[in-house]
Write a structure and sequence with these properties.
30% of the residues lie in helices and 24% in strands. Helix 1 packs antiparallel against helix 8.
């Protein structure tokens, strides 16, 4: 009986502890590659609900002001919700005097060029007009086993999965770094991609850079549901407590 309990204790201890390997990111050696994933270098193409910052400058600033959103201004995040240009469900933005302009699937550069062409219908010297078009930051949601879950907005042109996790309080001890999911809504439907944060090869992943409106979910380790503990000492203490209870129960039953 004693051997049985000892066997159960050792087995439980070994299976319940969270190993260093499970909580160490970027393991392994970098792999030398001659080709870089084309997807990571392709410019982002605008989608519905994206918010654009658009600025128009010229020598005659009073004239180009007519084409600007009266509330338009710098800044990012929540400020652009009111001052920026939101792409509606039809893929259009509305610019004063120009009207509705479809930019769905266009890059920032292509959108800028399209606005410049439209301005040419109103201005004598459109070549002297300087147009700036930028995506109003990358917004995404991080949930699951992270320190600070929620909706995030980063004023960057590109946001990697590492940026996203780092701005969400990092993965908790009970987070499964081998099971980080990116959930993405695409024209072909909802897609789900699995990322292993423990491997150095993540830097070569075609999903290394997230896209606006991505949902990042960090799944929990199975040890969390067991409630045993994160360290060997915690697990040992819990197992000893359980075994003590079982032995006490057995002795009481025998003495009845």
């Amino acid at each position: 009986m004693k051997k049985f309990f000892l066997y159960v204790a050792v087995l439980s201890l070994l299976s319940s502890c969270i190993s260093t390997k499970q909580v160490t990111s970027f393991q392994g050696e970098p792999v030398s590659k001659t080709e870089i994933y084309k997807l990571n270098n392709d410019p982002y193409r605008l989608q519905v609900n994206d918010i654009l910052y658009i600025d128009i400058k010229a020598e005659n600033q009073e004239l180009v002001t007519l084409f600007k959103n009266n509330a338009s201004g710098g800044g990012g995040g929540g400020g652009l919700y009111f001052s920026g240009y939101t792409i509606d469900n039809h893929g259009n933005i509305r610019i004063p005097y120009i009207g509705e302009l479809n930019v769905l699937g266009f890059t920032e550069k292509e959108t800028r060029e399209k606005i410049e062409v439209e301005l040419g219908n109103f201005l004598k010297n459109p070549e002297n007009v300087f147009v700036t078009v930028k995506l109003g930051g990358i917004n995404f949601i991080v949930t699951g086993e992270v320190g600070s879950p929620g909706t995030k907005i980063l004023a960057q042109n590109q946001v990697s999965i590492i940026d996203a996790i780092a701005n969400s309080g990092e993965i908790s001890t009970f987070g499964d770094r081998e099971n980080v999911l990116i959930i993405r809504k695409t024209p072909d439907g909802v897609k789900k991609y699995k990322i292993n944060m423990n491997e150095i090869s993540i830097f070569e992943s075609e999903y290394f850079y997230i896209q606006p409106n991505d949902i990042i979910y960090v799944a929990p380790l199975k040890q969390k549901s067991w409630g045993i503990g994160t360290t060997g000492l915690q697990a040992f203490t819990t197992v000893v407590s359980v075994l003590s209870f079982l032995i006490t129960s057995v002795l009481l039953v025998k003495n009845l």
